[in-house]
Specification:
Elements (H helix, E strand, L loop, with lengths): L8 E5 L5 H10 L5 E5 L11 H16 L5 E4 L2 H14 L4 E2 L2 H11 L4 E6 L1 H6 L1 H9 L4 E6 L3 H7 L5 H15 L5 E5 L7 H7 L5 E4 L1 H14 L12 E5 L6 H9 L6 E3 L5
Parallel strand pairs: 1-2, 1-3, 2-9, 3-4, 5-6, 5-7, 7-8, 9-10
Helix pairs in contact: 1-10, 2-3, 4-6, 4-10, 8-9
The protein binds D-glutamic acid.
D-glutamic acid binds next to helix 3.
């Protein structure tokens, strides 16, 4: 078996949106090998109940643990919001989610301490972003809203144009009256709609997402645990999906900014 530091980093998401985190990891940690699991057969998670999300998350993490990963990154905001404590209880390797890194990015970006958060129903109901932001700065005012239709829009590739704009306006116009200067994209899919969202706010808010901050946090953890891969070759990437859906490669390319090369179908046991 490979020594621990040479083992890959595991990343999982309910689908392929978590590839934005993989993209950031490639920038920050180019020598790390990555194994990605996307539960495309059971997406979306964001509209499911907490017990179901927790059950799926434990299965997803187990899949990665069986592939000898040295650390797990939960790239899904819904899972990170709902299931992180259960994951940490069940597995002994380092596990991080996107909530704390996302909260940090938003608090750093806001000048007036008023932050908007959008995410799936599961993410907004769980309130994990609010708690993480308040932990960093008690003074921050938060306006949170679930915007679930952004996920199918991104999956469909309808990220610009009149329909996306109309939906974005319907969700976000009530937030314009608030004094938010920063909007946190609390969902893997929303970065694809960034331009449409910015249009609704007439470019007047800073839009932040958790991907880069999560990659930076990963580096800090691997450094501290002496788990950085010593190789000086570009890391490999393997992608496991529970369903090879008709659109996975075209959407995957948008999230990753590159073609998904080594893709395998994975079955997750119930
Ligand atoms: N990955 C999910 C998230 O970030 C969005 C898609 C879903 O609902 O499963 O919350």
């Amino acid at each position: 078996m490979k020594s621990l530091n040479k083992q890959p980093i595991g990343v999982f998401d309910s689908g392929i949106g978590g590839l934005t985190v993989v993209k950031a990891l490639k920038k920050v940690l180019p020598y790390e090998d990555i194994v990605y699991f996307g539960d495309t057969a059971r997406l979306p998670y964001g509209s499911k109940s907490s017990p179901t999300i927790i059950r799926f998350a434990l299965q997803d993490a187990k899949f990665l643990v069986n592939r000898q990963v040295k650390m797990i990154i939960v790239a899904c905001h819904s899972v990170s919001s709902v299931a992180l404590p259960d994951l940490k209880k069940h597995f002994r390797l380092p596990i991080i989610g996107v909530i704390e890194p996302g909260a940090k990015a938003a608090v750093q970006a806001s000048k007036n301490n008023c932050i908007g958060i959008i995410g799936t129903q599961a993410t907004i109901l769980a309130g994990a972003y609010e708690r993480a932001i308040k932990n960093l700065n008690r003074q921050v005012e938060i306006v949170a809203r679930s915007t679930p239709l952004f996920v199918p829009l991104a999956e469909q590739g309808w990220t610009t144009g009149p329909i996306a704009l109309q939906i974005a306006k319907t969700y976000l116009t009530p937030m314009i009256g608030e004094k938010i200067d920063t909007l946190l994209l609390g969902c893997t899919h929303y970065p694809l709609l960034k331009n449409t969202i910015a249009k609704v706010f007439k470019q007047k808010v800073r839009i932040v997402d958790a991907a880069l901050e999560t990659a930076l946090e990963t580096k800090i953890i691997l450094q501290a645990k002496k788990l950085l891969n010593p190789q000086k070759l570009a890391g490999t990437m393997k992608f496991y999906l529970s369903d090879l859906t008709p659109n996975f490669s075209s959407i995957g390319r948008q999230f990753l900014g590159a073609d998904l090369t080594e893709v395998f179908r994975a079955s997750i046991s119930e």
